[in-house]
């Protein structure tokens, strides 16, 4: 019985101590008494379709901006980065008959001129102001349409304002015997001077 009485006392103390914290526990539910209970909304992950749409939109925007940037950069670049080569081959000397051949005029702005002892290439530019003369085979001469300068069949000026004969391009034979023309190396014959028409490279001896 003595043992029973001890637990009785301990129980009474244990009941008395939790009485104090019981008060706040009673207050907490009292506050939301008149309000609806909070609703907890759980976010759901994006479906794969939305992710794919987002990627497509961003990829489109990135592509558009990249294109705009490239166009912007292109605007400041020269239109032609590579110029046509000034050196080219025009076949073999045997491919040409005596006289003036105009088949390369459009492509290279030259005429091939073959005489009995040499072959040379005239650069098709009037020495007055740079127009391209016409070859008049019936008159055996070149005639400039701009101001009327006339040149004989070898490009030597004889009428009009042209100050000198038309220039000749550098020519040589490659190891196969083909004619190689270089229009960046021109030979001139200024008026009243010996000029350079007899220099090596100004013609190919036949
Ligand atoms: S440009 Fe040829 S005559 Fe003037």
In short:
The chain contains four helices and eleven strands; from the N terminus they run αααββαβββββββββ. The chain is α+β, with helices and mostly antiparallel strands. It has a domain at 87-205: Rieske [2Fe-2S] iron-sulphur domain (Rieske Iron-sulfur Protein), CATH 2.102.10.
Keywords:
alpha+beta, Rieske Iron-sulfur Protein, four-stranded antiparallel sheet, seven-stranded antiparallel sheet, 206 residues, rod-shaped, single chain, binds FE2/S2 (inorganic) cluster, disordered N terminus
Could you describe the 3D structure shown?
- The protein is of the alpha+beta class.
- It has a domain of 119 residues: Rieske [2Fe-2S] iron-sulphur domain (Rieske Iron-sulfur Protein), CATH 2.102.10.10.
- FE2/S2 (inorganic) cluster (FES) binds next to loops.
Distance between the termini: 148 Å
User: What overall geometry do the principal axes of the alpha carbons give?
Assistant: rod-shaped
Q: Number of helical runs?
A: 4
Structural class: alpha+beta
Radius of gyration: 49 Å
Report the mean per-residue pLDDT as an integer: 84
What ranges have pLDDT less than 50 throughout 5 or more consecutive residues? 1-20
